Amino acid sequence: MKKIDRQINHVVFQPTFGNRPNQYIGRDRVIEQFIMGLQEPIGSRNRCSLFLGQRGMGKTALLLELSDRAVKLGYVVARVTAHEGMAQAIIEQFQLNGSTFFKDDKRQLTGMAAGALGFSFGLTFSDVTERQYGFRSKMSLLCDKLAEKDKGALILIDEVRTSAAMREVASAYQELVGDGKNIAIAMAGLPHAVSSVLNDTVLTFLNRASRVELGLISTNLIRAYYERAFKGIGIKISDEYLDRAALATHGFPYLMQLIGYYLIQYTPDGGTVDAVIMDKAERSSMGDMENNVFKPILNPLSDNDKFFLRAMAKHGDTVSTAKLKVAMGKRGPALQPYRKRLLESGVIEAPRRGELIFAVPYLAEYLLQE
């Protein structure tokens, strides 16, 4: 019987934050909308996108997918995680990733040479430019230089949050668009962090950006992916356990990766998924969810916010605000501060007026067990 290479599991399923899965499913419309924006006129709303989602919703994987697609369209990409030094990191990424298009350009030029203003050779800045110019001016020079090779510039920022560096980068982007530079930007972050960015007085123009909330994936798509993945590596799984595995994910991308990963880990080479393996995979997946999703979500919350969430958890999947008021002994608008904070942080959602649900699967069960 053919042995399964366990290293394959690390290609098919990647249940680690910051890694990219072998196949990105359930976000086709989101990806196509942004890619279409890259082909639209400079300044198009779809060229500036904000992706919101809780931990485990696939934000980082989405940015990686956008990067690959953009490169194929002729863009040079700078991908960074938000931090105070990210402006310089963005410059360096463009110089590094764009250098391949200027590998034959070895002309030694000085400062203000015609046709290569600000560069010594390739995408390397002259000493004068390096010392005297700021982020916005350097980006303008890079955009012009890349345009000589029919290349655009795409900035991808993960874990976006309000900061001086974020103001510098976003403000420069707005000015570069106004100058007609072929540049685009996509940012991803937790809902409350993105909300803070949008409320920043310097960054209010980002409210005109395309804003996408990354929701759950169809369990039918997940089932189909599981079926292909397991068949491809020689693991047998019945329709019953395919259904169970897909439904157990509740459409949560990180949990989809976890369950698939552990099913492969626990199934013998060329073996068949059975009840014991399924149970074990689910238990291991929930352990990872607790450490990597539930605790990071709950740790920053106040005791009152957690009390609100536990009161929600006791009322099932969907709870009315009227029932919550009774359960918490509150009157009138007393629930509004908790509701507002938890909605903005992406922990809960309001599918209909007067109703609340948890945004992350199994969080209610965890709160009741905690």
Radius of gyration: 24 Å
Number of strands: 10
Low-confidence residue ranges? 108-115
Separation of termini? 45 Å
CATH topology of the largest domain: Rossmann fold
Averaged pLDDT: 87
Order of helices and strands: HHEHEHEEHHEHEHEHHHHHEHHEEH
The largest sheet, given as strand count, sense and whether it forms a barrel, is: 5 strands, parallel
Query: Which percent bin holds the helix content?
Result: 40-55%
**Tally of separate domains:** 3
CATH A-level architecture of the largest domain: 3-Layer(aba) Sandwich
Major beta sheet, strand line-up:
2-5-6-1-7
CATH class of the largest domain: Alpha Beta
Walkthrough of the structure:
With 370 residues, this protein is α/β, with parallel strands linked by helices. The chain folds into three domains: 186 residues, Rossmann fold (3-Layer(aba) Sandwich); 81 residues; 67 residues, Orthogonal Bundle (Arc Repressor Mutant, subunit A), CATH 1.10.10.10. Helices cover 49% and strands 12% of the residues. The protein is built from 16 helices and ten strands. The protein has a five-stranded parallel beta sheet with strand order 2-5-6-1-7, with helices on both faces. The protein has a three-stranded antiparallel beta sheet with strand order 8-10-9. Strands 3-4 form a two-stranded antiparallel ribbon. Strand 3 and strand 4 form a beta hairpin. Helix 2 crosses helix 3 and helix 4 packs parallel to helix 6. The two termini are 45 Å apart.
